[in-house]
Amino acid sequence: MSIDSTASQRGLFIVFEGGDGAGKSTQVAMTRQWLENRGARVATTREPGGTQIGEKLRSLVLEHGHGDIDSRTEALIYAAARAAHVQQLIAPKLAEGTHVICDRFVDSSLAYQGMGRSLGFSAVSAINDFATTGLKPDATIILDISAADGRARRIAASGGVEDSDRLEAEPDDFHERIRGAFLELAAKDPRRYLVVDATGSVEQLQQEITTHLAGLL
Question: What does pTM read for this prediction?
Answer without folding.
Answer: 0.89
